[in-house]
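Something for you to look into today, if you have time. Could you write out one complete protein record for me, on any chain you like? Leave the record below and I will have a look.
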Amino acid sequence: MVDRSFADLSLAALYDTLNPWGPGDDFYLGVVQSADAVLDVGCGTGRLLRRARDDGHAGRLVGLDPAAAMLVQARRHGSGVDWVLGDLRTRDWGAEFDLVVMTGHAFQVLVRDEEVREALHAVHEALRPGGRFVFETRNPGARAWETWTPERVREVNGPDGLQVRVWHDVERPVLGDRVTFTETFDSGTWKRPRVSRTTLRFLDPDALDAFLHEAGLTVVDRYGHWERGPLTSTSPEIITVAEATGRS
C-alpha cells in the first residue's frame, strides 16, 4: 500500500518486510528484463531494479523516489543502479528510456487532475518513440478500501528485531474516487505511535484511458491480475501497458 510514512528512516527499513516480494514483482521483473533503459518511478527501496541487475540486466537502470529514507535503503544494497532523489519533475529526461514503470500502486497518490496530467506528460517525454509505460492501480470495482480497518492488525519484525504493529482506518464516508485513510505504526519501544494520513485516487479504466490519450500514450495491453488475466468489473488490479506515440 502506498503511503508517505516511509519517509521515516526507521520505517523505510520495514518496507520490504511489510511488502514481501510477490506476483506483482515477478510481473514487473519480466517487463524490466525486456527493456534496455528503464526508469522506475517511485522505486522505494529499489528492490525491483536491484533484482533485475542481480539477474543479469546489462542496460541502464534508474530509480527515482521522493523519499530520501527509501533511497538510503536502495543504496545500501543496489550497486550498478542510478538512484535519484525527486519526482518526475526533478529533471528533463529527454526521451532517454525504453520503459518507465510505476509499481506499488504509486500512481494512485496522484490525486488532482493536474498532477495526473503533469506526471503522464513527464512519462511521455522520458520515453523514446514506441517506449512503454507500465503501471497498476487498484480497480475501484473491487472496493479494496473496505478491508482497511483497525481490526486487521499486522505484526512484523524489522531487520533489527524491532516488532511493529500496523493498522489502517479509512475516513468515512468515501465519496467519489478518492479514499483517505490513516496508517498507524506502533511498537512497545516507542513513546507514541507514528501515524500518517494519505489520500489515494481510484480511477476507472475509462478515466485512465482519457488521461493517457491526452498525454500521447496508447493502451496496448491491460490485465486484471498479475497472471495477465483479463480485466473484469471486480478484478483487483488495473494493470496497464501503454505505448508512447507522437510527441505531446
